[in-house]
Queue: 3 jobs
Job 1
Amino acid sequence: MSHDAKVRGLVGQRLKPLPLGTIKPSGWMRDQLRAQADGLTGHLDEFWSDVAESAWIGGNAEGWERGPYWLDGLIPLAFLLDDNRLKVKAKRWIDAILFSQRENGWIGPEVDEEYGYDYDPWPLFVVFKALIQYHEATSDERIPEAIEKCLLFVNQILDTRRLRSWARYRWADLIVAVNWLYERTEKEWLLSLGRKLHDQGFDWRGQFERFSHRYKSRREECDLSTHVVNNAMAIKTPAVWYRQSHDPRDFESVRSIISVLDTFHGQANGSFSGDEHLAGKSPAQGTELCAVVEYMYSLEEAIAVTGDPILGDRLEQLAFNALPATISPDMWSHQYDQQVNQVVCKVNRDRVWTSNGPESNIFGLAPNYGCCTANMHQGWPKLVSHLWMRNEAGGLSAIAYAPSTVETEVNGSPVRIALETSYPFGEVLKFTVVVTEKSRFPIDLRIPEWADWAEVAVDGTKMWAPSGKFFRVEREWHGTTVLTLFIPAAIRLQRRFNGSVSVFSGALLYGLQISEKWNEYRGEAPHNDWELSAASDWNYALEIDARKPQGSFDLIEENRSGSPFVSGNSPVKYTVRGRKLPSWAIEHGSASAPPASPLKSEQPLENLVLVPYGCTNLRIAEFPVLERT
C-alpha cells in the first residue's frame, strides 16, 4: 500500500519514515551513539533500581514510565550500532513485556501505586513506541498481535474510565500506535478508538489558539497544561490527529504552536523554557531535558505527516545545541534543567525555577527527578532513524543532516546513499549514491531556511537551491553518482531578551567559552553527581556591528578527532571583542537577566572566544550589546 494513498479513513503521511536499521550512523554521529552505548543508556539497567528491578520485568521497583522510557531509547541505539550486547538487553525486556500480557489484553503492571492508578494507560503509550521499533528491526510477529489485543482492552475500559492525569495530556502518543496498527489491519474499531482518545484528551489546538500562558507561570497557576514536557509532546498532536480528522486546521497548527511557544517562552537553543512549567523568555530560566527529546520526537512525527521542511530546521537546532549541552560528554550524567545563560551548576535552594528543586541544574545520575534519567536516551538514536524518509514520489528525502548511510529499495532495486560530512561544523555535504540497476527517482535535499543560498552539484552540473524548501534532484541514477550540497553558514544575529543578541552560524548557536571547574558532589563513579563553577569571567557585552555582523567575528577552524560536542574539542570557534560588565552578577543562583542593550562599559576591550553551544557545559549565549560610538 502506497504511503501517500489515503488508507480508508486515514490520510497518508507525506513523508514515510524508514524502518529502524535502514539508516546507519557514521563519522561523528557514530561516535556520539557509541559514547551513549558506553554511558548511561548501555548500563542503566545494571545498577539503577527503577530499571534494573523494574516491575515491567518482574521486579519490585517502579512499574510505571521509567522502564519503558529507557527501552524506547535503548532499542534504536542497539540496532543502529548493531550492538549484540544491547540487543540482548532489549530482547530480554521485549520478551518479559510480551509474557506479561494478561487474558484481558493488558500488558505490564496493572498499577504503580506511587505514580499511577489501576489500568493507567499512559505507560502503554511509551511501551507501544518501543514495541513498534523492535518489530521494525526484527519483524517479531508477536508484537502486532499483542498491541491489538491490548488496544482492544484499552478501547473497552475507556468507556467507563475516561482518560485522566498524564494520559489525558499525552493522548497523541497513543494515536501514533493506533495509526500504525490501522495501516496494517484497516480495522474500523481502531478509528473509533482514535476518536475516543481525541474526545477524552486535552484540547491542545484550542489551548494554543487561545493561549493565555504568556508569562512565567506562577506556582498557583501550574497544572498539566503548563508542564513543559506535556507542551513539547503536544507539538505533534494536531499533525498525528490530522490523519484521522482530515481537518486542515490540524494540518496547519504545528507551525502556529511552535510560533506561540517561541513568542512567549522561546529560548535561543530552539527549545522553550519550562522548569518545570512554562517560564517566560529569560535565558536564566531552565528547560527540562525530557522536553528537549520529546520536542525532537514531536518534530519527527509532525514532519512525516506535513512534509514541512522548516520542521527539519528546528529538529537540527535542538539536536545540535540543546541536546548535547545538557548531557555530559561521556554521557554518564545529565541535567534536569539547562539554561541558555548558565554560569554555575550548584545545589542552591534560592533558585529562579518555577517549581523545580535546588539540584535541578547539577550534572548527575538523577538530579531533581528520575524521569529524564529514563527518557534522555531517545534523542540521538531517533534523530538518526529519521534522517531520511521516503517521499510521495517514491524516492528519498533528507530530513536532517549527519554522517550516515541509508540502504533501502526504490522501484524494487537496492539503493545506497552514503553521506560524508562534518556538518553542522562544516558546509560541504557529499552524497554517494549507488544503485545496482538503472532507476529513475527523486532525492529531495532540505535547504535550511537560515541559509542565504545553497548549491547542489551533480556530475559537474551546479544548481542554485532556494532556502526553506526541499530541492529535488530527479534523474535516472546508474552505478555510482556523487551529489554535493554546499550550504554556506554565515554569521547571523538574533535579538533576544532585553535587547541582547544570540550568535548563530548555520545550525549552530554559539556561546562564550568559560573555563569549568568540576567538583564531585556525591555518588560513585562513573555515574557521580557533579557541581560546576566558572573558572573564568563570563559577564561580558559584545562589541558588534549588528548591520554587518560578519565583520565582527573571526572564524577559527581546527582539525579535531572524536566527538565534537566536548568542551575544548570543537572543530570551529569564533573570536569577537567585548567588555566586561562588573554590575552583571549572579542572582538566585544563576546569571541574572542580561542588562538592557545597548549599554556602555568603561572596562578594556578583550578578545572573547565563542564555541558551539552544544560543546559547552557553562556558557553565555544571550549577550548584552555595547553601544556603538
Note: Residues 491-615 form one domain.
Job 2
Amino acid sequence: MLRWIVGSCLQFRFVVVGFAAALVVYGIIQLKNMPVDVFPEFAAPTVEVQTEAIGLSAEEVESLVTLNLEELLSGVPWLESIRSESVTGLSSIVLTFERGTDLIKARQMIQERLTLAYTLPNVSQPPAMLQPLSATSRFMMIGISSEEVEATELSLLARWTIKPKLLGVLGVANVAIWGQRLRQMQVHIDLDRLREARLTQQDIIAAAGDSLWVTPLTFLKASAPGTGGWIDNRNQRLGVNHRMPITTPEDMAKVAVTAPNLLLTGKTMSLGEVAEVTFWHPMLIGDAFVNNGNGLLLVVEKLPSANTLEVTRGVEKALDELSRGLPGVKIDATVFRLASYIEDSIFNLTKAIMIGAILVILVVGAFLFHWRSALISVVAIPLSFLAAVIVLQTTGATINTMILAGLVLGLAVVVDDAIVDVEKIMRRLRERTGDSNAPISKIIYETTLETGGATIYAAVIVILAVTPIFFMGGVSGAFFEPLALSYLLAVVASMIVGLTVTPALGLMLLGRAAHGVGESPIAVWLQDRFDAVLQSVVKAPRAVSVAAFVVIAGGIGLWPFLGQSLLPSLKERTLLVNWTTPPGTSYKETYRITSRVSRELQSLPGVRNVGAHVGVR
C-alpha cells in the first residue's frame, strides 16, 4: 500500500502539487472563517430553569417553588446532578446532564415535565428555561448611563429598545439588565391618616386593585378581567376595547375607598386622602454601578460554539445603530469585552508566527544550503498545518487556546518531518554513484519508502501515547481533548504530506539540481563541535552520571513547590472581583460597599473603567 501511494504521487506529481495548492487556498479561507473563542466548550450540558415569585421570601421560594420543581425534575433521563438556589422572589434550578447528551432532547424532556408544574402558588410565574449558554457565557458588559434621561425612562429604553435589538444579533443567548428601575404606579400608605380614618391596609389594597381592569391578585375582583366582544351592523364588526380610565397618579388618587365602616357612616374617602400616589420603581433586589455612579449594566451572554468575534461585532453594530436614535444616552461597550483579548492574542500570535516563519526559513536555508530543497520544506510546513485546520473545521471545532496549543505542539513535529525528509532525499542524491543519469525518481521513491515507514511507526506511537486523554472524562478530559485532537491531526497531516507532496515536489524541483551540491558549511561546523563534545562526555561517564543525578534530585525537590492549575495563565486585562457579604446584609449597605470599592479601583493608575453589579449572579 505504501509503495503504491508513493509511486502514484511521483507519477501524478503535477496533480498532487495542484491539489496541494488548492488545499492551501481553501485552508486559508477556512482559517479566516472559523469561529474563535478563548476556551473550548468544556462544560457538561446544562439547563437552567428559573421561576419568578415576586413577594415571596427566600424561605417561601424554597419551600413552595424550588422543592416542588426539584421533585418534578429529579427523574429526567440522562440527569447527572441538580442544584438549586432560592433568593427573594426567584428560584433557580440548574440541571447538569451526562456528557454527550443531546442538549435539544434534554430541553425537550424538561419542557414536558414543566407542563405538570400546576401545583405552584398563584403568585409565581410559570417556570421558564433559559437559553443554552457557552462555557465562557459572558462575553460583553455594556454600561448605559445618562445625565439627561431619568432612571425609569432609561430602564424603559433598555428593556424595550436596546435589549430586543441585542437579542436579535446572531449568537446572542441572553441580555440581563442590572440596575433596572421599571416605572410603576405606587400607592404609599400614610399610617397616621389610615389610623384616623379607621381603615385597614386591606381596604386600600382592595380599592387600588379593583380600580384596575386586570390584577395578578387572585383575591380581588379585578383578577377576573371583563369580557370583550363585538357589535355587528349590516356590513361592519366593531370590537369592544376596554380602555384603562386610570393613567396618572392623579387619576388613581380620585379612586373611592369602599370600606364597611365608611358605608355604615355614609362617608366617602379617596385614596389620595389616606395615601400618596406616585410613579416610582419597585424595591431593588440588586443594582449596578457603572464608572462614576448609577447606571445600567447590560450583561450579554452568547450561545454555545458562537463566534465571539462575529457576535461582538454584531452587538457593536447594533449599539452604533441605536446610539443615533438615543440622544443624551451614553453607551459604553468597553466595560468588559472578551473580543479585545482575542484580538490582542491574534495580533501577538500573528507576529510570533511571522517571526518564527522567518527564522525557520533562515535555519532551513542555512542547514540545507540549497534554495530548492529549502523551498520544499517551507511549503510542506504550512501545508500540514492547514490540512489539520481543515479537518478541525469540518468537525465544527472553534479556534481556541487549547486548539492552538495542540497545533503549536504538532508544528514542532511538522518542522522536523519536513526538514528531515528533504535532507535525506538530498543526501541520497549527493551519494549516488555510477551513472549520473540514474533515474532520480527511483532514488526519491526509495528514500521516501525508507523515511515513510519510520514516520508511520512514529505516528502510531504518538497516537497511542495521546489516546488516554480521550478517556479522561470530566472537565479535565473535555478541556484537553481539543489539544490532543489538534496535535494528532497535525502529526497525521505531516505524515501524509511527507508521503505524498514532499516526494512530488522533490522530483519536480530537485532533479539534477542536487548534483554537485555539497554539505552546508554551518552543518559541517556544528557536526565537528558536536563530535568533540560527545567524545568528552563519553570519556567522563561518572561526571555525567553525577550531574544527571543532581538534576533529577533537584527536579524532585522542586516538584512540590510548583503550582497546579487546570486553566493556563492568560494575560487578560480584565480583573473580576467577587465580593460576598454576610447573609442578611441590606441592599443599601451592599451598594455602599460596592460603590466605594469601585471608586477606589477607578482612581488607580492604569484602570480604564469599572463596572459592577449588586445581587445574585
Note: The first helix runs from residue 2 to 11.
Job 3
Amino acid sequence: MSRDAFAVEAGRLPDGDGPAVFCLRRPPAVTRTALIVPPPFEERKAARAALAAAAAALARTGCAALTLDPAGTGDAPGDDAAFTVETWARDLHAAAAWLRRRFPAAPQVWLGLRAGAALALREAAADAAPPAALVLWEPVEGPACVRQLLQRRLVNDMLAHGRARVARADIERQLAAGGTVDLDGFPLTAALHAGLQSLGAAAWPGPGLVVATGPDTRPAEACCRLAPGLERLDLRLPPFWNTVGLVDTAPLAAATADWIGRRVQGREGNRPDQSDPTDPTDLLPAERFVSFPGAGGVLRGVLHAPPPGTPVRGRLLFLPGWSGDRTGPHRMFVRAARRLAARGWTCLRLDYGGRGDSDGAPAVATIASMTADAQTALAWLRAAAPDGGPLAIAAICSGCKVALFAAADAPDVTRLALWSAESMGSLRAGATGRRKTWDVLRAYGRKLLQRETWRKLLRGQVRARMVGRALVQPEVRSAAEARAEDATLGRLRSYRGSILFVYGGSDPDAAGSSAAYDGFCTRHNIAHIRHTVPHAGHSYYGLEWEAEVLRTTEKWLG
C-alpha cells in the first residue's frame, strides 16, 4: 500500500483482452472506477505527471483509476508502427471490460486527454456497457492534432538543419501514398494517420465534463454541441501535454475529482473474496513491473530479463531526465532495454519518486532525491540479479548528472552511458545559460516563419506570458547545488570505469559540455569515448538519431 493509502498495481490485461498494459491505483473501498486514456506520441510522456496526479486524486476519493497503455505505446508490448486508432479503440474497450469484471458494482467514468478525449468520446456510445460519464480534457480533433504534430516536426527539422528538409505537403502526399513519416522519433504510418483524420467531435447522450485549458475553446464548443449533456469548464493552464518540464496541474485534478464525486453516484464495487483475474506483475514473459521502498515512498519501474540461455553480460539501470519517466523520450528507453535484454543485459527502467508511477509529489523532487532513488535502485538490482555481471547506468539529460552522483559512490558501477550530459560544477561554462536562451530564441524565430504561428497570433492563441518566461529566465543553480556538484567531481577523479558521452550535433550545450567532460576525463585518466549524432537535438527526436544512439551504446557496452 502506498503512503496515499491506495494500492498501485500494474500489468498486462489478460490474454483474452489483448496486449494492453495498465497501471491501477486502487483504494481500499472502491465506489467508482475511472479509465484514463492518454494521448499518443510524445504528448503521452509530457502529460504523464498530470495523468498520474489525476489518478491519485481520484483514488483518494474511492475511485479505482486505471491508466491505459495501448499495444505499441508506453510499456505495452508491440512495435510503435503497429499502433493504429483501431488497436487503440480495441484496447480501450478491453480495459473497460476488465474494470467492469474487477469491480462489477462500481459505475465507470472515462477520462481522455487531447486525442485520447476524442477517442473516448467516439467510442463511449459504442461500448457494450457505456460509461456512466465522460471527462474530456482539452479535446482535439484528429486532423488538428496531426497538423500540430507535423508543425512541431517541421520546427525541429529547421532547428537541426537550418531548414525544413521536407514540406508539409510532401509529408501528406507520402502518407496518402501509404508511406511512413518520422514524427519526432515515432513512426506515423499511413494507417495511423488515416485513423487520426477520422477522429472528431461525436454524439454522446450521457453526462460529462469538458475542460478547456487553453485559449482555443472551439474543440470544447464542438463537443458540447453534439453532446448536450457535457458541462463546460474553462481552466487556464500551460499546455502540459507539450511542455518540457513540470506543470502544476493540481487544480485540474482537483476539479475533475470533485465533479466526478458530485455527478456520478458511487456504489461499493470491491468484493474482498474476488481473486484478481490477472497477475499484476506480468507485462511480457521477460518483463515485469517491480516496486521497492525508497526514501520518499514506493519506487516503481520495469525489469527486463534476458531470455533463458542467453549469455550474461551485465545489469543496466536506466535513468530518465528531470521531468521524464521510465519510457524515456519517444519511448527510447523501452526500445533500448528490450534490445539489450535480448543480448544478455538485465535492465531496470526506473521512475524517480514523484515521477511516473512512483510515490511522491513532483514538486519536492531534487537532484539529491533523484540520486538517492538511483542508489536505492542500484541496491535493489544488485540483490535481484546477484550473478548478473557488471553494473552500468544509461541516462539522458538531467539523469546523467544523477548517474555521475551515484557512480561517484559506487565503485562497482563500471560503465556509464550518458546521453546529452550537461556539464556541472566548475566544468559548467558561464555561457551555458546564454547558449540555451539563444537556442530558445532561435526556436521561436523559426516558429515565426510558419503560417500556423501567425494564425494563432491573429486568433489570440499564443501564450505570451509563457514565451516571455522562456526567453528571459535562463537556467540557474543555487550555490549549494554548485558545491555539491564540485564535491561529486572531486570523488569522480578516482573513477576507474568507462564513460560513453553521446551528444546531438544541434544541441546548444553539446560543444561546451563535451569539451568540459573530455578535459576532465583526460586529466584524471578516466576511460571515455565521445560520439556526436549529426544534427540531432538534445532528446534525439528522430528515428535515425535514436537508432544511432542505441547502436553506439550497444557497441560500446560490448
Note: Residues 272-280, 466-474 have pLDDT under 50 and may be disordered.
